[in-house]
Amino acid sequence: MLLIKNIGVLQTPVGKSSLCGSKQAQNLKLTNAAIAIENGKISAIYKDGELPIITNDVHVIDAGNCLVTPGLVDCHTHLVFGGWRHNEIPLKLRGATYLDILRAGGGILDTVRHTREMSEDELYNKSKGFIDEMLAGGVTTVESKSGYGLNLDNELKQLRVNKRLNESTPMDVVSTFLGAHAIPPEYQGKPDEYIDYLCDVVLPEVKRQNLAVFCDVFCEDSVFDVEQSRKMLLKGQKLGLKSKIHADEIEAIGGAVLAGELGAISAEHLIATNEQGIDSMAKGGVTAALLPATSFYLNKTYAPAREMINKGIPVAIASDFNPGSCPSLNLQFAINLGYLKYRMLPEEILTATTLNAACAIDRGETIGSIEVGKQADLVIWNAPNFEMICYRFGSNQVKTVIKKGEIIQ
Ligand code: NIG
Ligand code: FE
């Protein structure tokens, strides 16, 4: 047995399903607490100085009176990619926007060129470095999207890297198929044909090889419209892949409305969303996965988080780590922005980066909170409370990371 004792504050959301409205701000807080772990799972929780009998075979960790939370869950990333995009800096300084660069054949398509050129092993080694950095920052589960291959071989290559990362590192890596991320050079001007190719050829093979659990689409002006997105996501649903959608990131062309109509598990970005989109998501039980570091890096406004919470939409916060719109994998920075820009309460932000994020990737049953029976994914912080994590920015405030009951950091 592993015993973490002398926990100053144990703070966690509670339950197996996402929390919305005022429930998003409800965290359990236990003082002078301890957590017992057996077989990688939480077996008991103690408070107010209570402790079990400590026999010789118990491995004890002293939390030093610090804060302990569930391991963070980063529910939206694009972490497997070739190259970087710092070459866009001069274009951006001259006023080019994200979509200007993409329309000119750069942006995502530049990353596609580099990703296609890299071997599976090279991609694995590069992404493994990111996984190590994420673990050190307190992230114990991550979602990772394809979408830089844009043809059968290269999409499968990216998804196999996800699988290898999941199997060979302590991180749980949850895989999403995002073949509909951009229109590849081979299909320029023929987006409908590309969607048909994805639906008829690529996605069935992804399913056959069991390489993804979600299907996602970039529903955006100059990328895929609502009908193309609907077709892609319905095909995914038919094959048993739940829907995610990059919706209303730059223009509200109807992505959030579609998310509600299709009962997507999550709609992501939502910087530009409107009342219609919010109402549809609320009706469809969709979790909003918000990505404030992308607003920061693209110099955009911030998604209307408070309005969504008030309308009963569960809000999750993720990094969106990718080489174009958010070259940072620091989820602690997204937490800082959740407080500074969304004006969310620390308790709401903890729920957004643990339980609600877990539910956005369908893992609420096993992770996202500190409860008996859940996987022992925990962070001991160099801080007395979660307010400190929202407040200090730019430093890694993690002290110890525990994954499935093992100390990994
Ligand atoms: O979530 N918006 C689309 N996809 C990513 C960016 C990918 C890229 O620019 O390489 C995002 O922001
Ligand atoms: Fe994204």
Question: How would you describe the overall organization of this protein?
Answer:
This protein has 409 residues and is an alpha/beta fold. The chain is built from 15 helices and 16 strands. Strands 1, 2, 3, 4, 5, 14, 15 and 16 form an eight-stranded mixed beta sheet that branches. β10 (242-247), α8 (255-262) and β11 form a beta-alpha-beta unit. The protein is globular and about 70 Å long. It starts with a strand and ends with a strand. The model has no long low-confidence stretch (mean pLDDT 98). The structure holds N-(iminomethyl)-L-glutamic acid and fe (iii) ion (FE).
Give a short summary of the structure.
By secondary structure, the chain is α/β, with parallel strands linked by helices.
Helices and strands, with pairings:
Layout: E1 2-12, E2 28-38, E3 41-46, E4 59-62, E5 67-70, E6 72-74, H1 89-93, H2 98-103, H3 108-117, H4 120-136, E7 139-145, H5 152-168, E8 172-180, H6 191-208, E9 214-219, H7 226-238, E10 242-247, H8 255-262, E11 266-269, H9 275-284, E12 287-290, H10 292-297, H11 305-310, E13 315-317, H12 331-340, H13 346-353, H14 355-360, E14 378-381, H15 386-391, E15 398-403, E16 406-407
Parallel strand pairs: 1-4, 1-5, 6-7, 7-8, 8-9, 9-10, 10-11, 11-12, 12-13
Antiparallel strand pairs: 1-2, 2-3, 5-14, 14-15, 15-16
Helix pairs in contact: 4-5, 5-6, 6-7, 8-9, 12-13
Bound molecules: N-(iminomethyl)-L-glutamic acid (NIG) and fe (iii) ion.
Fe (iii) ion is lined by residues 76, 78, 246, 320, 322.
